[in-house]
């Protein structure tokens, strides 16, 4: 279509030039010379003419057309990239929500195993609507669901009552330990590791919670290895191996002992202040 339009414009220009030349057919030679002189004088007013201007214009025109084609190609490529980014963002959101939901379910379960009457849940905290709108306006983009997340809040109830949920800041040291262990075990069930090392995790726990932790570790040990240090007897019961760790003259020593000997050592320590710590496996 473009070439057809150029051909039509060329024909129109030729026809117009032919009509312009007709008026000179009736002029005599002296008159034609005067007209020629006027035309040359008018042309002289334009100064020197760049004979390569047409070629230069054609070259620039071709380059402009190539750049336009390249620009259109880039626009198409950018559209595909934007679509790919949107797809990945959607999959990321779906994966995060799915993982969060599974960990939340496991957390509720592990917490109830430690606190039979208790309840726990993970709550997502998000950016306020006004803050989201301001950010999107300033950045000129739309935030995904996960981009609006600010963090995760843990809420627990040791009594199981719906109106008695507390955050971590409101809990005692022992309660915080129970919640932290429940959360660790929840993650372990969702995405198991092969090895865990706990250093006196039962130090701030009551005997009932120490027993519950021991039971939970024994259950989880089917899929992972746990090494735990303790000064309490409850964790010894389900242990596969016990090691006595002692320090004398700034040197530590370790030897394997049976579970009964481990319990006796802890009892002696509690009664007489004996020097020794039990490492469990």
Topology:
Layout: H1 2-22, H2 29-44, H3 53-114, E1 119-126, H4 129-139, E2 149-157, E3 166-167, H5 173-190, E4 195-199, H6 207-220, E5 225-230, E6 242-248, E7 251-257, H7 259-272, E8 277-280
Parallel strand pairs: 4-5
Antiparallel strand pairs: 1-2, 2-3, 5-8, 6-7, 6-8
Specify the overall morphology: rod-shaped
How far the N terminus sits from the C terminus, by CA atoms, comes to 84 Å
Give the amount of beta strand, in percent.
Answer: 15-25%
CATH class membership of the largest domain: Alpha Beta
Tally of individual domains: 3
Oligomer classification: single chain
* Spatial extent as radius of gyration: 43 Å
Total E-strand runs: 8
CATH superfamily of the largest domain: P-loop containing nucleotide triphosphate hydrolases
Secondary-structure content class: alpha+beta
Strand line-up of the largest beta sheet: 4-5-8-6-7
Account of the 3D structure:
The protein is an alpha+beta fold. The chain folds into 3 domains: 1-43; 94-191, P-loop containing nucleotide triphosphate hydrolases (Rossmann fold, 3-Layer(aba) Sandwich); 192-281, Rossmann fold, CATH 3.40.50.300. It has 7 helices and 8 strands. It has helices spanning 2-22, 29-44, 53-114, 129-139, 173-190, 207-220, 259-272; strands at 119-126, 149-157, 166-167, 195-199, 225-230, 242-248, 251-257, 277-280. A 5-stranded mixed β-sheet has the order 4-5-8-6-7. Strands 1-2-3 form a 3-stranded antiparallel β-sheet, covered by helices on one side. Strand 4 (195-199), helix 6 and strand 5 form a beta-alpha-beta unit. Helix 3 (53-114) packs across helix 5 (173-190) and helix 5 runs parallel beside helix 6 (207-220). Residues 261-281 are annotated as: Disordered. This is RecF/RecN/SMC N-terminal domain-containing protein. InterPro entries: P-loop_NTPase, RecF/RecN/SMC_N. Residues 127-249 form the RecF/RecN/SMC N-terminal domain. It holds the Pfam family SMC_N.
């Amino acid at each position: 279509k473009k070439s057809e339009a150029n051909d039509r414009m060329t024909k129109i220009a030729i026809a117009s030039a032919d009509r312009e030349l007709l008026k000179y057919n009736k002029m005599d030679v002296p008159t034609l010379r005067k007209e020629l002189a006027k035309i040359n004088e008018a042309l002289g007013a334009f100064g020197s003419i760049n004979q390569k201007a047409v070629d230069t214009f054609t070259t620039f025109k071709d380059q402009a057309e190539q750049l336009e084609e390249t620009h259109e190609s880039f626009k198409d490529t950018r559209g595909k990239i934007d679509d790919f980014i949107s797809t990945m963002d959607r999959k990321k959101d779906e994966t995060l929500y799915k993982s969060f939901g599974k960990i939340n379910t496991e957390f509720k379960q592990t917490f109830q195993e430690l606190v039979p009457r208790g309840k726990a849940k993970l709550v997502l905290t998000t950016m306020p609507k006004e803050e989201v709108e301001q950010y999107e306006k300033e950045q000129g983009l739309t935030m995904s669901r996960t981009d609006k997340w600010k963090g995760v809040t843990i809420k627990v109830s040791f009594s199981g009552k719906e109106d008695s949920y507390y955050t971590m800041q409101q809990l005692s040291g022992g309660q915080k330990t129970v919640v932290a262990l429940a959360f660790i075990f929840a993650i372990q069930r969702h995405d198991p590791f092969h090895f865990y090392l706990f250093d006196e995790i039962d130090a701030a726990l009551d005997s009932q919670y120490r027993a519950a932790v021991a039971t939970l570790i024994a259950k989880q040990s089917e899929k992972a290895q746990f090494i735990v240090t303790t000064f309490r007897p409850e964790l010894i019961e389900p242990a596969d191996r016990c090691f006595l760790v002692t320090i004398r003259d700034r040197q530590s020593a370790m030897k394997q002992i049976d579970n009964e000997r481990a319990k006796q050592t802890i009892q002696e320590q509690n009664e007489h202040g004996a020097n020794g710590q039990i490492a469990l496996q």
